[in-house]
Amino acid sequence: MKRLLRPRNLGLLVVAHLWFLLPILYPSGYVVSTAVLLGIYAIIALGYNIVMGNTGIYSFGHAAFFGVGGYTVAILTVNHGLNPWLAFAAAPFLAALAGLVVGLTSIRLSHFHLAMATIAFNVILTNLNFNWSGLFGSESGIGPMGKLSLGGIRLDTDLRYFYLTWVFVAVVLWLTHNFVRSHLGRAMAAVREDEVAASTSGINVVGVKLMSFVVSAFLAGVAGALLGFYMPYVGPRPFTVSLSIMLFVMVCIGGRGSAWGSLLGAALLTVLPEFLRTVAGLSAIPHEMRIVLSNPSYHLVMYGIILIVFLVYLPQGLVGIRLRRRRRPGLVGQPVVAVEAVENRG
Amino acid sequence: MAQDLALLLIGGITKGCMYALIAVGYQLVFVSTRVFNFSLGGVAILGGLILLSLRDDVGLPFPVALGLVLVAGLALGWFYFQVLLRPVRHRDGATQMLVIFGMGLIIENAYALVWGQQPLPAQPFLSKKLLMVMGTPIKVQALWVIGLTALTVVLLKLLLDRTWTGRALRANAMNETAARLMGVSLTSVGITVYGITLGLAMLAGAAISPITYAGGYIAVPLLLKGFAGLIVGGAGSPFAAALGGLILGLVEAGGTKFISPSYVDAIGMGFLLLFLLVRPQGLFAARVER
Questions:
Q1: Nearest to A169 by CA among A105, A109, A111, A226
Q2: From the list A131, A252, A311, which residue is nearest B263 (CB)?
Q3: For position A228, what pLDDT does the model report?
Q4: Predicted ipTM beyond 0.90
Q5: B284 inside domain
Q6: Pick from A112, A124, A304: which is nearest to B102 by CB?
Q7: Total tally of structural domains belonging to chain A
Q8: Which of A237, A266, B86, B125 has a CA that sits 20 to 30 A from residue B6's CA?
């Protein structure tokens, strides 16, 4: 209780309450649906952060696990008529299984070979999603999707779905935030910093890497199931390599290794395109400019610029700004910062 | 039947040469700086689009336009090293690769803002004719692509093995400190490598644009499959990388013919995965760290 009353935690508590009151304070369908998508992206980003930020594995195929989650609920409920909640429960486990398979095949590869292997998995899944109409319903996808209901209330409005999603976000945030400080979380950080040193300390390097893959794929599966029941149809478009890249940028700019950072990164990259779209809709904007601003390619150009700026000037991400001022070693464990901290003490 | 097979072979070789041109670009950067240049796909497409604009919009004669494409590539290479990578050149390879990757993201999408998202038809280099070889029609442009690939591979091999510059590049990758002490300048290595690679990528894109169309969405597939070619062949020499690309092209052509054209990406990527798992050092390499 005492910890909860610290000024910082109190501030977070207030923000969290305000956030949960958002749909009531600002009842716009557009804002609420953006917030739902933000929640879903936040869950995948939090999971991806475990692989990329904590364990230091560059996986560029994370959208595939998200897709496994989404297609699992779609196929099980629409094609096989399973109870929605059962399908919802099955999705994360299937995604985790996919994570295990991808992990087992690619985990021993070095950094960028692994990145390519995971991209390859994602491309293959997308290719199958588009063309294997018997299982994945090709381009138009599977549907119409049923809705989840909780205690007799059908979660069919954006408002109700907002609460469902953000309860999940809160739980996942709490879990991942604590996970970093668990035995396994610390083992992951050790592997990220130095694999040889980690293995001489008795850490099973391959096992830890595999574990981080499975855990994060599980969370991507949760997000995929949430997206599946939110959309009228589950198609291939949300699960392409573009999303994998976007996740990477989210975690990079938020701060690698920090759960709060991932949440911030997800928020920034979800709100930014919507903001640009709103700007493009203003009447003061000339027509040519509007076409450019509303072009999805433009957003990817922006992500590229943001990524470079952060890599060069703020490698610790948004949360790094705060950590650096307090002269505390960042969660990424930048050795230089650690040395500075020691020097300042002496 | 024999003609079908010949067509398939020609198609596969042409496609394979496209991948090979990207793969040797990866190889040159990797062998001299231990970094993968994950932006070659977008740069290649940019080359095709610049050639298209110079010929059709500006109306320059073909040799001049092609020369300007090469100059644009060299200039972009200078920009890569002197502007983009300068702030991170003392950081680890992963950071450098990510910066290049970010630049690739910019290029791959920025050209759609200028030239639009639809692929544009590009005119062949010189002749639109089809050449008949033993009853099999071959596009003259395909011969250009194949010739450019062969020339590039031989020149790069000579550069790396027989010249002082080539030795300096390889020394730089083996031991940076020792190379510095022997008078190999990081700046000149960087500018040389990125200049050659990006100039080459732009030429490659210009050469393939009459076959694949200029622009559109092929930047990322090209980027991935060029890398796949590098993995299949191995990063040991330009020959290995190019052969890897060629094999991938043939495998894809075979897959298109005997399985289904829709699954060509899955087939190519599956082939890459197979090699990453079974022989990550590539077919023709004695030893390359994974």
A1: A226
A2: A131
A3: 94
A4: no
A5: no
A6: A304
A7: 1
A8: B125
